[in-house]
């Protein structure tokens, strides 16, 4: 570590403050995350306690009658908010802002979710800093992109694309097709095996599916892959059925859209982009693995009709091609609706 000391006029040694926070991940872990797009991590005790509280409360919530769950957290914005049920597969609850409920279990779950959000967002922010240092990206470059994302928004009008999702996968049935996430970083925490990540190798079949068990796992998303000019690989993953079923907590740190015009110079490109256009393009290049089968298949057909390849190559590389799209890079591009989401 560099010695940031200097002599003052009175001869005393004065230490200048460090230029960035101490690393959370060592260099080997940063390299593994960058190369594979995924990393199993140990969590601090405060976050572990919050997870245990959240799992206890969401277990009680999912035990409620379906009508009660739908009334407490009505579905909205497709699969992006509220309670959603996929027959014979899974059910899940998505938070994008604080929700007040008259039901005791639901209200306790909302409060615990907001508490967890702040803790886990801080963790992912630290990981983002570690990746930034390895790529020589100034840490302040992320400020606008994380505006409103690091704590659960108080109301729907303040939402960003960032979300927290609580899953209940049904025994022997719950799954998610292979995919990469759309945002910056995602963390997945499961109670039993089911989440699998793809780890590449140089020999056929060029990789293997690795079951992470109940280990907390961080995944790089398409937006971060794109911002890093493909230096950071998006984490390909899937969910396979577990005979006993499983619970899972997924927090997806996605880009804030509060500041649409984003400067790419710290990321190596001398121009600005309209982040709303970037986000629309990335979101529009994928299908929802959490929608019903009918909706998933319809989305796949739409993507194929628009020239997208549904497969492993698309999972890894599609979002990076956005760097060649003039409509995304011109800051004069029409800005979408107001707000941060």
Map the helices and strands.
Elements: E1 5-7, E2 13-15, H1 27-36, E3 38-40, H2 45-62, H3 66-72, E4 82-86, E5 90-95, H4 104-134, E6 163-169, E7 176-179, E8 185-190, E9 195-200, E10 207-211, E11 217-220, H5 222-227, E12 237-239, E13 246-253, E14 261-263, E15 272-274, H6 275-283, H7 293-305, H8 312-317, H9 326-329
Helix pairs in contact: 2-4
Explain what this protein looks like in three dimensions.
- The chain has 341 residues and is α+β, with helices and mostly antiparallel strands.
- The protein contains 9 helices and 15 strands.
- A hairpin with a 6-residue loop joins β9 and β10 (207-211).
- Helices cover 30% and strands 20% of the residues.
- α2 (45-62) crosses α4 (104-134).
- The chain is globular and about 70 Å long.
- It has a 7-stranded antiparallel sheet with strand order 3-11-8-13-6-5-4. It has a 4-stranded antiparallel sheet with strand order 7-12-9-10, with no helix packed on it. The chain has a two-stranded antiparallel sheet with strand order 1-2.
- The two termini are 40 Å apart.
- Residues 312-338 have low confidence and may be disordered.
């Amino acid at each position: 570590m560099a010695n940031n000391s200097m002599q003052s006029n009175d001869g005393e040694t004065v230490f200048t403050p460090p230029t960035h926070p101490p690393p959370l991940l060592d260099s080997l872990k940063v390299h593994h995350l960058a190369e594979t797009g995924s990393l199993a991590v140990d969590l601090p005790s405060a976050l572990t306690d919050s997870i245990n509280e959240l799992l206890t409360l969401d277990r009680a919530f999912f035990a409620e009658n379906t009508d009660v769950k739908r009334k407490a957290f009505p579905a909205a914005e497709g699969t992006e908010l509220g309670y959603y049920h996929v027959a014979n597969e899974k059910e899940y609850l998505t938070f994008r802002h604080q929700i007040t409920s008259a039901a005791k279990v639901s209200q306790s779950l909302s409060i615990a979710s907001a508490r967890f959000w702040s803790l886990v967002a801080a963790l992912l922010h630290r990981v983002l800093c570690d990746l930034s240092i390895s790529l020589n990206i100034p840490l302040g470059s992320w400020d606008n992109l994380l505006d409103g994302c690091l704590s659960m928004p108080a109301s729907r009008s303040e939402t960003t694309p960032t979300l927290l999702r609580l899953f209940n996968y049904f025994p022997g049935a719950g799954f998610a097709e292979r995919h990469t996430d759309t945002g910056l970083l995602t963390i997945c925490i499961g109670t039993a095996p089911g989440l699998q990540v793809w780890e590449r190798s140089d020999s056929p079949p060029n990789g293997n599916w690795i079951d992470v068990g109940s280990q907390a796992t961080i995944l790089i998303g398409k937006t971060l892959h794109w911002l890093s000019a493909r230096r950071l690989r998006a984490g390909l993953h899937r969910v396979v059925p577990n005979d006993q079923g499983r619970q899972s907590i997924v927090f997806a740190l996605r880009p804030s859209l509060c500041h649409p015009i984003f400067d790419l110079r710290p990321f190596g490109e001398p121009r600005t982009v309209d982040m709303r256009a970037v986000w629309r393009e990335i979101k529009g290049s994928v299908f929802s693995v959490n929608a019903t089968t009918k909706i998933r298949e319809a989305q796949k057909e739409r993507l194929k009709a628009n020239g997208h390849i549904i497969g492993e190559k698309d999972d890894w590389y599609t979002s990076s091609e956005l760097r060649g799209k003039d409509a995304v890079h011109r800051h004069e591009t029409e800005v979408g609706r107001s707000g941060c989401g």
